[in-house]
Amino acid sequence: MELNNSILNKENYSVIVDNSLNINLSLKDISSEVSFVVLDNQELNLNIHDFNTDNQLTFYVNKFSKVNVKIINDNLDKKIAIKGDVKDSGEINFYFADFSSNNLDLVSNVILEGENSKGSFRFSSVANDKITKKYNVGFDQIGHKSSSEFIGYGVSLKTGEIDAKGITHIEKNVVKAVADQKIKVILFDKESKAKASPTLRIDSDDIIANHACAIGSLNEDHIFYLKTRGLDESEARRLITMGYLIPLEEYFDKDDKDKIDSYIKENF
Q1: Residue 192 located in a structural domain
Q2: Which pLDDT tens digit goes with each residue over 33-53?
Q3: For residues 98 and 101, what is the distance between their CA atoms, to the nearest angstrom?
Q4: Is the CB of residue 71 less than 8 Å from the CB of residue 99?
Q5: pLDDT for 125-167, tens place per residue?
Q6: Which end of the chain has fewer CB atoms < 10 Å from its terminal CB, N or C?
Q7: How far is Cα 218 from Cα 46, in angstroms, rounded to an integer?
C-alpha cells in the first residue's frame, strides 16, 4: 500500500503502522514533531522529499519490524532532529542524500533497546561555497547482539564545510554487540574544510567495534591515471566525485536516482 500525507493524524501528526506501508511524505507545512509507531512484524518504507526549516521525526520500532527512511534534502536552510527506539529484532535504516546549496544541522539519536536490534545511518553530502553541513549521529546500544552503522561520504567545495560526528555508546554488560563508523570527505579546493569525529564509547568487553576517517584532497595519482585513459582533468574529477556520491543511489527508487544523477551532472 502506498500513501501520502493523508495518513497523518493532523491533531498530533502521528502515524500508527499496523500494516506494512510505503509512504511519500512532505513536511514542508509541518512545524511540529511527526511520530511513527510501527507495531510488531510490520515494515515501513518512508520517502521524504522536503522539510520545514525545523522538523523532528520520532520512530518507535516494535518487535520484528523494519523501517527504511529515505530522504532527499531540498533547498532551504534547516535543522532536523531524529529520534528512535528499537525493540527486539527490530531494525531502522536512514538514507540521507543532501546535495542542496543551503546550510544543514542534523541531529539523530537512536536507542537500540532490544536484543538483536539494528540501526544504520548513511549519508552523501555536498557543501558548496559558504555552506556548512553538520551531522551529529548517535546510537545508544542497550540490547544484547545489537548492531549499529554510521557511514558518510562528502564533498566540500570552495569555502564549504562538512562536519560529521558519530557517537556510539555500547552500554555496560551488553554482549555480542557490533558498531561500525566510517567517514570520508573530499576537499575540492584549498579553502574547503571538513571535520570528522567518529567516537566509540565502549563499556562492555564482548563486542566488535570499528571506526575509520579519511579527509583529503583529490588523489592526483588517480587523476593522472584517468587522464592517461583519455579523460580531461574536469572529467576525471567528476568521475572520482561520483564514486563518492552515487553509491547511496542504490537505496532510492528510479525517480530519486534521476534527481541525484542530475545534480551531479549539473554541478561537477
Answers
A1: yes
A2: 889 999 999 999 999 877 777
A3: 9
A4: no
A5: 999 999 999 999 999 999 999 999 999 999 998 999 999 999 9
A6: N
A7: 35
